[in-house]
Design a protein that fits this description.
alpha+beta, four-stranded antiparallel beta sheet, single chain, six-stranded antiparallel beta barrel, rod-shaped
């Protein structure tokens, strides 16, 4: 799009002149203006579409149970993870607590094995080993004396000798047992026993996880931010596994779905800017883009579904665009043709027909503020009804009483009102900036670089 003066349309001039006294007596509305340009853009056609949610989900119950809580109502806005319904969980809660207690027991058993023998236990086993060794030495010495007496034929019977031998064997085995026990305590538990205990802990942990997962399924949650559009249960009702409890739709962004005939679908591409009108909201004009062109036609109508993605506006938790609303989308459906382009901000909605305010360039004059010595351009403006066409970048193609080079008001146009006397309203904008720190926002003279402007100072 062409620039006005040295200011591109992408950086439209903003006139902020509240409290400034002008030299001319009629009050003039502070505005910013841009130039109408002519360019070749694709021809378009209006299609009727329907506003549809970006996402829709019928939330069901994964388990059977009785509804304990149902805190939402139709129309409520819900956040992702918010509770939609809660089932009774007392029985499974007790099972979870029991499983957790068993898990704690298994963990302590594993910790006991991993920590090994206590020093006191090792010392006790060592003392028992020494005691058993002393008993074995005493039994051996006694058996040796009894054997010598028996060989000498003194007062020792064979039965007594065998009794001392038995006592010796018992004492020696006791010593070996005490020694082995001491060595076991010093070495600690076998790694296999530790691995077995660790496996029992993991098994019990999985039991707890399974029960907790089962318990979490007793609570149905919103899968995304959205709105409840249907209730399928109520407090006290019994629901079976798979039964729906509520339906949620996402409306922060919406799709407008239209059907385009096969001869025109080839001109529609993903990412194209699209203008959307909603008859129920005549004062609003929505900018969207083509999100998808479904490559499968309806075999009966030979039309292809086209989805246009829009950013919805949420006001006090209420969506401006609601699912099911009728919409009209202007899609490119033909070869390029010449069209008048005006910035989107120039279009004023709300009346019977869209309109723009056009400044009479032949009557534009330069005025000066006596106090600040700041110069302004000002001139009369007229209302021009237009028919909107295809969207192009930040502009709209329009048809109406316009020609290339006309000046249209792009800022402050909603405040323009004709005087009571029926005279055309007067608008003004700065000729030069006066604040150095606002250089990139200061208004410039729209006719400054145009020799054929017809709007020079008088």
């Amino acid at each position: 799009m062409r620039t006005i003066g040295i200011l591109p349309l992408a950086l439209l001039a903003v006139a902020t002149l509240s409290g400034v006294a002008l030299a001319q007596p009629p009050a003039a509305s502070p505005v910013a203006v841009a130039e109408v340009v002519e360019r070749e853009i694709s021809s378009g056609q209006t299609f009727v579409g329907t506003v549809t949610p970006l996402k829709s989900s019928v939330v069901g119950s994964a388990v059977a149970g009785r509804v304990l809580e149902f805190p939402v109502n139709e129309g409520d806005r819900v956040r992702k993870g918010q509770t939609l319904a809660q089932l009774l969980t007392e029985t499974i809660r007790l099972e979870v607590e029991t499983a957790k207690a068993e898990l704690e027991l298994r963990k302590q058993e594993l910790a006991e094995l991993e920590n090994g023998s206590r020093p006191e236990e090792v010392e006790q086993a060592r003392a028992a080993t020494e005691s058993a060794r002393a008993r074995a030495e005493y039994a051996r010495s006694r058996h040796s004396r009894m054997d010598q007496l028996f060989q000498q034929g003194r007062a020792v019977t064979r039965e007594q000798l065998e009794e001392t031998h038995s006592a010796l064997v018992e004492a020696e085995q006791g010593h070996l047992s005490a020694k082995a026990n001491y060595e076991l305590l010093v070495a600690g538990p076998r790694k296999e026993r530790i691995a077995q205990a660790a496996a029992r802990v993991l098994s019990q942990q999985e039991t707890v996880n399974r029960l907790e997962d089962q318990m979490s399924k007793h609570r149905m949650k919103a899968p995304f931010d959205g709105y409840v559009i249907a209730e399928h249960t109520e407090v006290g009702e019994w629901v079976s596994a798979g039964d729906p409890v509520a339906e949620v739709v996402a409306l922060d962004e919406v799709d407008v779905q239209a059907h385009v005939v096969e001869s025109q679908a080839a001109f529609v591409r993903r990412g194209m800017p699209v203008r959307v009108e909603v008859p129920a909201l005549p004062q609003e004009l929505f900018d969207g883009e083509v999100a998808s062109v479904v490559p499968q036609a309806d075999l009966r109508s030979r039309t292809f579904p086209v989805k246009v993605r829009l950013k919805n506006r949420i006001e006090q938790d209420e969506p401006l665009l609601k699912a099911g609303m009728l919409a009209r989308v202007m899609l490119p459906t033909g070869p390029k043709t010449k069209a008048m382009l005006v910035p989107k901000d120039a279009v004023v909605l709300g009346g019977k027909q869209p309109e723009v305010w056009v400044v009479d360039r032949a009557s534009v004059e330069t005025v000066q503020d006596e106090n600040s010595a700041q110069a302004f351009r000002q001139g009369p403006a007229r209302r021009v009804p237009v028919t909107l066409g295809i969207a192009f970048e930040e502009s709209f193609g329009v048809a109406g009483d316009l020609k290339p080079g006309d000046w249209v008001v792009v800022r402050g146009n909603e405040r323009i009102r004709p005087p009571d006397a029926g005279q055309p309203p007067v608008v003004r904008w700065p000729l030069e900036r006066t604040q150095p720190d606002t250089a990139r926002h200061a208004a410039q003279d729209p006719a400054k670089n145009r020799s054929d402007s017809g709007g020079g100072s008088r």
